[in-house]
Every structure is written in C-alpha cells, then in structure tokens.
Specification:
Layout (H helix, E strand, L loop, with lengths): L9 E2 H8 L3 H9 L7 E2 L5 E3 L1 H15 L4 H8 L6 H33 L7 H28 L1 H13 L2 H24 L5 H17 L5 H13 L1 H8 L5 H13 L5
Antiparallel strand pairs: 1-3, 2-3
Helix pairs in contact: 1-2, 3-4, 5-6, 6-7, 8-9, 9-12, 10-11, 10-12, 11-12
C-alpha cells in the first residue's frame, strides 16, 4: 500500500528554536520578503518546509559574515544564485575567520602566560598580538558597515596590511592620524573647507589611507568621507575636534578629490 510521504514542516516557534533565533526575527523576514513560509495552516499559522530551512541557513550564514538583510535578499533571490557555490564560499570565509580567531586566541594566551611569568614574549610577538586585538576590535565596531560599503575582499586586504606592518609603519600611521586631527582643528578655525588648512588635512588623510589601502582612488576616499557623516560613531570621532567637524571634513575631502559636484 502506497502512502503519501509528507515533508517535515515547522511552525514559526519550532523553526526559530531549531535555528537559534527568535520567532520575531522569522516573522520580520516574512514581512520584508526575505523568507516566506511554504504555506499557511488552516488555523492561520506559518509553516516552513525543507526548502525554507535551507534558505534560512543561507541567510544566517550571510548574517554571520556581516552582510545586511537587503543585500542578502538580492543575493538569494537572484535567478543566478547558486546554492552549492554559496555554501563553498561560506565554508572558505568561515575557515578564514577561524584561522583569524585561532591566531587571536593564541596571541591572547601567550600574552597571559607572559604576564603570569610563564614565558618570555618578544616585542615582535607583543606587537603581533596587539595587531590581532586591534583587528578584532575594529571588526566588532565597524566591520558590518565597512564590509557592506567596500566588500569583504578589500577589508580583508586592509587587515592583512595591518598584520604585515612593522612597528615603525604602525607608528607612522598613528602619527598621521593625529596630524589629521590637528590639521582639521586648525581648518575649523578658518572655516573654509576649500582653504589651505582644510586641504592639508585632506591630503594628510590620503597619506594615512595609503598605509591601510593597497590601492587608493578618489571615489573610495570621497565615499569614506560620506561614511564619516552617516555613521554616528565616525561622526562622533571627528566631532570631538569641534562640533560639525565631520561634515566640514567631508566637504574638504570632496573638494580635494574633485567629487563635490558629482
């Protein structure tokens, strides 16, 4: 006797528990068209099947990598979306992340052992540990926004440049960073983003970027300046120089890069 085999289905609560997210998150994914249920029960409950479970897995993979929801929606709903290829890419990116975390953990453990007197740590090892901690902090604070704007490849290359920096190169970057703030402070007194002081601040900023980016472009420089105004954390950093400094600096950089009227 043949019996119809029915696929396993999950309610919102069941799938949320399975995936380790909230029911509210699943309902929101439905509302924005990111993950629709397979069907609705007669009682009016959302029901999800194997295809939706696989799709949710993809969404959570991308979220783990810091991709915003709108971009995820465009990716997974694209006719050219290749699930197997995406999984392989996720695996590679997660392996890279694991290698980074393993290196960070090893550096922290070595630092703890050195503090406890168990081992001696060279200045080079201390600096390497410091750089890994700095990368981790930057990723936590700004990773999602920066990766969304410039892409994983560019950010990963920037992080690699930091890892390869010598102490002298890092000190130079720190000096330039302070010089930018001092020049910006002086330019704010002048009040003219096209003035000599403001343009000097923009040029110092370009020099600073040259230590972090493997390729400089005026478009990327202008885009970063826009982010300094749009992101409250960056805005607060520059506005500590003087109220309105972030907006002023953006204008100065746009003039410097020739992007102001585009």
């Amino acid at each position: 006797m043949n019996r119809e085999v029915r696929e396993v289905e999950y309610t919102v609560h069941e799938l949320a528990k399975l995936a380790g997210i909230t029911s509210r998150t699943l309902r929101y994914y439905d509302e924005i068209g990111l993950l629709k249920p397979a069907r609705w029960s007669e009682a009016g409950y959302r029901l999800y099947g194997p295809r939706e479970v696989d799709r949710l897995q993809q969404i959570l993979f991308y979220r783990e990598l810091g991709v915003d929801l709108e971009t995820i929606k465009q990716i997974i709903h694209s006719p050219s979306f290749d699930e197997l290829k995406a999984l392989r890419e996720h695996r590679q990116q997660l392996l890279e992340k694991r290698r980074h975390l393993d290196a960070l953990i090893a550096s922290v453990e070595k630092t703890i052992a050195a503090k406890e007197g168990g081992i001696m740590m060279s200045d080079k090892e201390k600096f390497a540990a410091f750089k890994e901690q700095l990368i981790e902090e930057n990723e936590r604070k700004y990773g999602e926004e920066i990766r969304q704007k410039y892409g994983d490849e560019q950010v990963d290359r920037s992080n690699d440049r930091l890892r390869k920096m010598t102490k002298a190169q890092f000190d130079e970057a720190e000096r330039l960073s302070q010089d930018v703030l001092e020049a910006l402070k002086e330019a704010m007194q002048d009040g003219n983003p096209a003035g000599e002081a403001a343009q000097r601040a923009a040029d110092l900023h370009r020099q600073w970027l040259g230590l972090w980016w493997d390729h400089y472009s005026k478009e990327a420089h202008a885009g970063l300046a826009r982010l300094y105004v749009e992101d409250e954390r960056f805005k607060a950093y520059y506005d500590q120089v003087h109220p309105g400094a972030a907006e002023f600096f953006k204008e100065a950089i746009w003039i410097y890069t020739g992007m102001k009227d585009r």
